């Protein structure tokens, strides 16, 4: 299927796909807001849509001398420790510059300072239920510094692996974080690794 036929398919029909009739906040904390919206579909039928509103975050792929830096921490919703690239958001500054945020998160979680930081893409990790976008950066020319873990990150551990080992971890299921896998794919597609 060529791209022009995809566009034609998505433009079929008249009017908006969904109209929001009412929206209410169901729950909120410093990290997220859960919303429930009453909607009308294109055919006029009513519906209800629940979703999570979260600030955007960054993910950093630290790569230097043929090695990739990972972090591992306990992820409470799935009750499991998981390997991933450093990532995070600043709840107190939801409109922070993504590059500034990426540099800060990299140093916070790994102690590494990036001599070069390149934005390689933006992804929506779970757009069926969460509004959050992820800005993906490749960090190179790394030098060691002091890490500055937040209280919630006290269980965080670090590891350095080769690109081949990272690929094995993904294929064997030792690394299952969707954002990390997508970031790795972006870097490979851009021929940066």
TrEMBL record:
The yes or no answer to whether the keyword Hydrolase is present is yes
Q: Which cofactor does it need?
A: Mg(2+)
- Give start and end of each Nudix hydrolase domain: 53-183
On whether Ribonucleoprotein is a keyword of this UniProt record, the answer is no
Give a Pfam family name: NUDIX
What is catalyzed by this enzyme?
Answer: GDP-alpha-D-mannose + H2O = alpha-D-mannose 1-phosphate + GMP + 2 H(+)
| Gene3D superfamilies assigned | Nucleoside Triphosphate Pyrophosphohydrolase
State the UniProt keywords alphabetically.
Answer: Hydrolase, Plasmid
Family (UniProt) = Belongs to the Nudix hydrolase family. NudK subfamily.
**What is this protein's record name?**
GDP-mannose pyrophosphatase
Q: Which organism is it from?
A: Rhizobium ruizarguesonis
Its taxonomic placement starts with: Bacteria, Pseudomonadati, Pseudomonadota, Alphaproteobacteria, Hyphomicrobiales
